[in-house]
């Protein structure tokens, strides 16, 4: 398998799925995640499905309620249902009890849903349906079922079903009109044994390496420990690199990586004249539509320091200049367009 030949988005999602599966298996089997191994079949299934989604240009997936089995299926010395539940824990998956006693959601399927799907119920109509059929462990091949009598015990094959609704794609396209869109990697981890000084240094290092954003959120962990949720946003190509930095340079034992689609307004800096001299301000647009204009902190701080005046005074001057030079001119242009 030529992993390096995969599209970047596919490779990132495959690695994210394997990471989820490794973390879950490590918890269930009480071993280190680094010792978890995967079968070539599981990797091939992930690559095939994610490549198919990529080729079909499907960027939004929605998952329905999942069947919650009352029993468990022993396989290769581990409990499949426990493994699957651990993968989907915290993903937002919704469950519905069933009388089945065997696992109906495989670990590979669980990892795909936890990584790529949203557990919402959108309004949709079905245009096309796709099926993928494989074999469960010790299952009877699907072709043989045609020749077996009803008395013969046949295990249900492993299946995947995909509904395609073109209306959802049209709504998505309409909603991004005028906005830029791209994909980024989001890395998360819980940190409960690092000091404020170390966290401050870590943030500076991540920004230096190329992170787009780094945030810390206070959380409460098990055993009533106060901790910090670290969230890093970075280009897809840097996801694994920054994740390894976190594993090497923080106290965390694992990180979560997932690809996220972003919508972005266009931003630019323009120079305007003010009573304090020329000043750079930030413009926010959606296509040709001006959304807002605001002072740049660094520019205001520079002028406040040079003139030895309060920063708040510089902001006030900048806002007045923006109103006169940008906002009112925009309103005049809009009025002229309507009159035409």
Automatic annotation (TrEMBL):
Gene3D superfamilies xrefs: mk0293 like domain (3.10.20.300), Transcriptional regulatory protein pf0864 domain like (3.30.70.1380)
Q: Which Pfam families match?
A: Ni_insertion
Keyword Metal-binding listed = no
User: Which residues does UniProt assign to the signal peptide?
Assistant: none
Q: Does the keyword Amino-acid biosynthesis apply?
A: no
Query: Superkingdom of this entry's organism?
Result: Bacteria
What keywords does the record list, in alphabetical order?
Nickel
Protein name per its UniProtKB record: TIGR00299 family protein
Q: Which organism is it from?
A: Dictyobacter vulcani
Taxonomy of origin reads: Bacteria, Bacillati, Chloroflexota, Ktedonobacteria, Ktedonobacterales
